[in-house]
Amino acid sequence: METPSEHVYPAHWEADVVLRDGGTAHIRPITEDDAKRLVDFYEQVSDESKYYRFFAPYPRLSDRDVHRFTHHDYVDRVGLAAVVGGEFIATVRYDRIDATGRPASAPADEAEVAFLVQDAHQGRGLASALLEHIAAVARERGIRRFAAEVLPANTKMIKVFTDAGYTQKRHFEDGVVRLEFDLEPTDRSVAVQRSREQRAEARSVQRLLAPGSVAVIGTGRRPGGMGRAVLRALLHGGFTGRVHAVNRAFPEGLNTLDPEGVPAHRTVGEIGEAVDLAVVAVPAGSVPAVVADCGEHGVQGLVVISSGYGESGPEGRERQRELVRQARSYGMRIIGPNAFGILNTAPGVRLNASLAPELPPPGHIGLFTQSGAIGIALLSALHRRGAGHIGTSTFVSAGNRADVSGNDVLQFWHDDPATDVVLMYLESIGNPRKFTRLARRTAAAKPVVVVKGARHSGAAPTGHAVPSARIPDATVSALFRQAGVIRVDTVTELVDTGLLLAGQPLPDGPRVAILGNSESLGLLAYDACLTERLRPLTPLDLTTQATPDDFRTALAAALADDACDAVVVTAIPWVGESDGPSPGEGPELAAALRDAVRAGGAGKPVVVAHLEMDGLAAALGASGEDPVAATGASPAADADTEADGTPRGSGVPAYPAAERAVRALAEAVRYAAWRRTAAEPGRVPEYEDIDEAGAGTEIDGLLAAAGDRDARSFPLPADRAASLLARYGIAVRPALPAPDADTAARAAAVLGYPVALKTTAPHLRHRADLGGVRLDLTTEEALRRAYREFTDFLGKPEELRPVVQAMVPRGVDTVVRAAIDPAAGAVLSFGLSGAPSELLGDIAHRLLPATDRDAAELIRSLRAAPLLFGWRGADPVDTAALEELLLRLSRLVDDHPEVVAVELEPVVVAAHGLSVLGASVRLAAPPTGSDMGPRRLPVY
Fold it and tell me: Residue 83 forms beta bridges with which residues?
């Protein structure tokens, strides 16, 4: 890499971070223009904190101090500041030192680090966040170790260092604690960082969803308009906090807005008490003044309903970026702009800060959407089909999601006791790698169901600035499933699956009992089970004259039968000779089914597929009082019973088609199986012969030699690719150039016969069917004859670029790839060479880092996998060696983000061992702000 120029401002070090209390701060390098800010900051620090920093009374900074602390070369001397409202609230700096502690330059790799945090902001996690960022800066500048001297009484700062998770040494000298720690991330330091990230981001969302007071800015003087609609929704929903109406157009002296009877103010500053949340419903041109008013008076967060931002074109996108910058400069987070709003049904909150006219019934489903229209549809469907029993815990409709995103809300829902099931409608994913990481962790405790819009358009929706995908949508779906995400195709399926997961226990397996009063509907359910790869039992036909008691008895027997894991009940309108009311419909049949479920315990899920029996669906949903309201407690996401001992979510979901019921059940079966395997996810093995440090040095040298290359990736020459792969124990068979027949003969003599003659021209590479490969050439005569036929029929040597390679044991030709995709992160791919992968798309994918379980599943998930395991009497190949190759490649790409693409083709897997015959590697400078670096909020 190029040596960084001194004094060039490193803009990529700037970052917005979420702090422990949910507020935000901006971290940036300190510059020469910050002298006054530094002096003002220091004046706000207590004498005790100054003493801890300088080990002596130090009431004020001298001019020399100010110059020293604001003039940096950004290589050997670096200072960072945390900024809120344009003012410093914390600083950190390092100075490179040699072995004697004196100032030094590279190659010295140690630096002394020191922090100072204003007393008013201590306890917010500022020092921890600054340590993450200054450590990343130091690693970038070649510093591998920090040293810090701390007074023994400064226990808070000692705790910052000791809790960070780095490998450290600690000793006491001359009344000072000296701490030394390596900056190489460890498993513990990464875990600490992500735990802090989760708590901070969850807290930032919790502050938005549970405010003590709300100001609606843009409330009209007369009924009508979005502001007034939000105000009415807050009041009608029974919000337990204080509500204020704000509008600069209110006349002087107006103190109360009628008929609502809420306090009226011209600005937030006139309210006279703390405001936690502001709902902004003013024209886009007026929003900056509103944000400034809110920021200067301590508002914690904003819901921006106003439109005219990213969805309106280039000017709107720039307006959107400026909105986020302005809000974060005050430590505020934003939902929106162009948002529908947020809801929280908790009895102690009852927040409806949205355009929805009613607060939905309380329940255990968390909803996130980027579309207001989809949000309305989801709320309506859950309210109608849940019939008041299966409800919503919290709802966020983020609009353009310029700040708060689905990732943030996942952090909140991860340990939210009121949310058991997560439903998400996503049109774009700003940080896919982080999303899959968070979803995997959350899905281990509660289901995450996602429907992805804009899957095939090739571009994100207007207003969403996100990286474009390079991999097929089917691949993204497979990666989601690896992370435990239940991905469905439509909003209807989202509701179907969510109702089942919220109302029924998870199945123990794929065996399904089918019973009902229609043989035909039972057969449709049976076929649907087979289509979804479930294992249905023979349907039980109760006949069209079956009574509710018949259904009760049959369902109770199925629930008691150890041969099944779930039950599908099919129902059609009752057919009989009686002229009276049909005994098999509506409340009577619903009551019978619920009785059987209660009597059978909570071990098996039950779904109902009906035709033209809407009354039955409503009756099943209205199954009595809500357990949350009845007990005041929420069920655990992985528990099978409610707090009162009844089966968890005893509402039985009903579907107007057998296929929909079975599809929802199948998603639950697959998710339950993933949960069981996720408990033992496998391990990332260690290989003693891997030279990680040597590979890193080699990569640095290759990047430095390549120069900038416009920041694009570039391919390595074949010999350098083979050298890099060899450091991870991946041996590539040499292929010697053969520009003419004589050179080919000399190459064969070096390698030893038999040999293969191959062209490396892109249109003929690996194409034996087109004559581009000649195998088992045992003599020089055969080699020269093959070379002559090459040039006679396929083209000139300079076009064909032929090579000679030694023959290897016969086996199955496979292809192994690893690449960094902007839409999914690091992906490991495997397939069989030729038609299976190229024509049929039979390629399997896993996210990195891959575990031993992932590698085994990757190989076995192909449709053509039987070819590896002795199909039609062939010898099985060495899959253990193949799994090891996959794991070694996974380690290489995961350890070195500069390696952006690797392709090994063909990899010939024999009965014993394998041979890598071709390899290509691409490098690029590592991206800044990746999911693996210090915590930072995305900037779009």
Answer: 26, 88
